[in-house]
Design a protein that fits this description.
It contains ten helices and 41 strands. Strands 19, 21, 24, 25, 27, 28, 29 and 33 form an eight-stranded mixed beta sheet that branches. Helix 1 packs antiparallel against helix 2, helix 6 packs across helix 7 (about 580-585) and helix 6 (about 560-570) runs parallel beside helix 8 (about 600-605). The relative contact order is 0.06.
Length: about 700
């Protein structure tokens, strides 16, 4: 039929040669041509798209168009995929210079069959027939130019897990692998292969695990130590865990160190040990210096003491020099006045033979001219500090502050002291007194520019039933037992005290005031103390008292007992064979109903003529220096002492002893039957509250 049609077509061409073909005849010819070049409804192979068509002596030019060239290209190339696609094809015919486009219909391109996909997967990926090592199952793979997502399944995960882990046993085993393949919206599940696992060879499995260990010859950072390789358990230990821990954690050492990491491999009862030597590198001097420098930062303007470190990590030392030491000292103490000062602090860091120098410039804040700046944590305001223009019915006599002749009441209000921000304050005083000659200390604080009212420690005289008024609140601060506390977790930046002396009649002796003490709790505060020249052994011969010797109240008088031991040490004597029983009612706080009021114990010792005050300390070095230079103290403690646990207790620290790298704190502990006891320094630091009774 087609041949007859072509014959007729050629005949028409001969008859009409040289003439324009009528439109109706042209359509007939085109119909005959498209029938001859008809395309299949679907295909999996490339199509033949001729570009010329010969009829007798004439050659027609043909070109092809595809609505989706990614499915079928204009040259007939077919691009198959994981889903069936289709596109419309058109042929462009040039007849006698005229171009005619004719639709050839829609052709579907068939998707890859499961068999074809399986064959392609097998050509791209293979696993050993016998698995001796864990298998790596890829989760994506390029198949026929498209990214396929793969999920693997083992018919027996106890042989080979879905993660590729192999589990050999005493017999030969096998499992069938199946893979789920997803590309776009098409997902298929195909069997892949059968894999065998030979009977167990414990040594070979451990050897294979050892072969996977790859540790560096040297390191200056933490190591990633595997603890399981397949089914082999690995346990690590270090011969120098302080430098390179059992977990591979790197720590600084002064010099490079050779460390042996020992690995114990365990599998099915077989244990194999291997050593891995590693050189643990220390920091270079330059790295140490930069690390030290990175720890230092100051605000542009300063109104508090600066922490000028001289000891840094990795053995780096530093020396500070201030160009205005009267404004900021070489140790960081800041003195403020009504003028802002620009101060240059020069730092010289040293590590080994290397030196790094750096300068910092800060500007001090100003305070008003009617304030006195106090930069540290313990104010001891002595007779010589009292200003006569502030006396109201007071005078100085024989180095003591006393009432003026015939005066029954006199007072002194101190200047306002600007301080580092503090959260708590303890005030105390030292004065001889009696039942009819008393002292009263009041203190006020400033928070956010607002002054509180005065809070009082109560009227106190030796022999009276002295009682604090409790509770006391001034809004921004409150008084509880012995401490003044700033409210609402705020800080105060100034305090002022008012001390009042009284006597019942002009015939009574005046109280005699020696000093007023104000101790501050300053968050983040550092108070450096040089202990380099102190001796290794100090032990003051403080008489020993056991608090529980006193009937009834023995469990409550640790503070009284400690204070009495200090008074005995100072040479005072008592009529009672149990002197702490005699002292107890004298120092008792009848307001708070406690024997352990820090201030009343200090004021009580002051009433015996001692220069005493409560002091908060900030380091062992500070206490050590006091023990060596001044004498024994009572210390407030809380926590586990190793002998007992306490919610609050007082002991006497009479000295210390340094033996090699260990320091012992020598104490008279009134709760211990032997009284005399040595605490390890680290234990002591765990329970001290860093509040002490000072007798100068």
């Amino acid at each position: 039929m087609k041949k007859n049609l072509l014959f007729l077509f050629l005949t028409w061409l001969l008859v009409l040669a040289g003439c324009q073909t009528p439109a109706s005849s042209r359509e007939d010819l085109i119909m005959l041509l498209t029938e001859d070049l008809a395309l299949p409804d679907e295909t999996a192979a490339d199509l033949y798209f001729p570009t010329e068509y010969a009829l007798n002596h004439e050659v027609l030019e043909l070109s092809w168009l595809s609505d989706d060239e990614t499915t079928i290209a204009p040259d007939g190339t077919v691009n198959r995929g994981f889903v069936q696609k289709s596109t419309s094809i058109h042929v462009v015919i040039v007849i006698n210079g005229e171009t005619i486009t004719k639709p050839m219909g829609e052709v579907a391109v068939t998707a890859w069959t499961d068999e074809e996909i399986a064959a392609e997967l097998a050509s791209e990926l293979s696993f050993p027939l016998i698995a001796t090592q864990p298998l790596t199952f890829p989760d994506t793979l390029l198949l026929f130019g498209e990214t396929a997502e793969l999920s693997w399944f083992s018919s027996d995960p106890s042989v080979i897990g879905n993660d590729g882990a192999i589990h050999p046993k005493d017999i030969s085993q096998s499992t069938d692998l199946t893979v789920a393949i997803t590309v776009g919206e098409r997902s298929i599940l195909l069997p892949f292969m059968t894999i065998f696992v030979n009977p167990l060879n414990k040594q070979a499995i451990i050897d294979a695990a050892i072969a996977e260990i790859s540790l560096p010859d040297s390191t200056d950072s933490d190591l990633d130590l595997p603890t399981k390789i397949g089914d082999v358990i690995v346990q690590w230990s270090s011969d120098q865990p302080n430098i390179l821990s059992d977990d591979g954690e790197w720590s600084y050492s002064e010099t490079d160190a050779l460390v042996t990491m020992t690995a114990i491999f365990a599998f099915q009862g077989l244990i194999v040990e291997r050593d891995f030597p590693i050189t643990v590198l220390t920091y270079t001097n330059a790295e140490r210096l930069q690390a030290a420098l990175s720890q230092i930062a100051f605000e542009e303007t300063v109104g508090e003491n600066l922490n000028l470190q001289t000891m840094f990590d990795y053995g780096v030392t530093g020396v500070w020099i201030s160009d205005l030491p009267e404004v900021i000292s070489n140790t960081g103490t800041v003195w403020l006045d009504d003028v802002a000062h620009a101060v240059t602090l020069s730092l010289t860091l040293k590590s080994g033979d290397d030196i790094l120098e750096q300068e910092y410039t800060v500007v001090t804040k100003t305070i008003s001219g009617d304030e006195t700046y106090f930069p540290t944590h313990m104010l001891v305001y002595r007779t010589s500090d009292f200003k006569s223009e502030g006396f109201d019915n007071l005078i100085v006599s024989n180095g003591k502050i006393v009432l003026a002749p015939d005066a029954l009441l006199g007072s002194y209000q101190s200047e306002a002291f600007r301080t580092n921000p503090f959260t708590k304050l303890v005030g105390s005083w030292a004065a001889t007194s009696s039942a009819d000659a008393t002292c009263e200390l009041k203190i006020r604080v400033r928070v956010n520019g607002v002054w509180s009212s005065y809070l009082s420690y109560g009227i106190w005289g030796l022999g009276r039933q002295n009682a604090m008024t409790v509770p006391q609140s001034a809004g921004i601060a409150s008084m509880s037992e012995d401490e003044l506390t700033i409210a609402n977790s705020q800080t105060a930046d100034a305090f002022q005290f008012l001390i009042t002396l009284r006597r019942d009649s002009a015939l009574s002796l005046s109280p005699k005031l020696t000093l007023v003490g104000i101790s501050l709790l300053i968050p983040g505060y550092v108070y450096p103390v040089d202990t380099a020249l102190l001796p290794d052994f100090v032990d003051w011969n403080v008489p020993e008292l056991y608090q529980h010797d006193v009937p009834t109240i023995g469990g409550s008088i640790c503070s009284i007992t400690s204070s009495t031991m200090l008074l005995l040490f100072k040479g005072h004597s008592f009529a009672d064979s149990l002197p702490h029983r005699e002292v107890a009612p004298l120092f008792y706080d009848y307001g708070n109903k406690i024997y352990g009021n820090w201030v009343y114990n200090i004021v009580g010792m002051g009433a015996y003529g001692e220069s005493s005050y409560v002091k908060r300390i900030y380091s062992w070095d500070e206490l050590k220096h006091h023990l060596a230079i001044v004498g024994p103290v009572a210390v407030s403690i809380k926590g586990n002492t190793g002998l007992y646990t306490t919610s609050g207790h007082l002991i006497v620290v009479r000295g210390y002893e340094v033996i090699g790298n260990q320091t012992w704190v020598i104490c008279n502990d009134p709760n211990v039957a032997s009284v005399y006891y040595k605490y390890d320094l680290q234990v002591f630091l765990g329970f001290t509250r860093n509040v002490i009774y000072v007798l100068e």
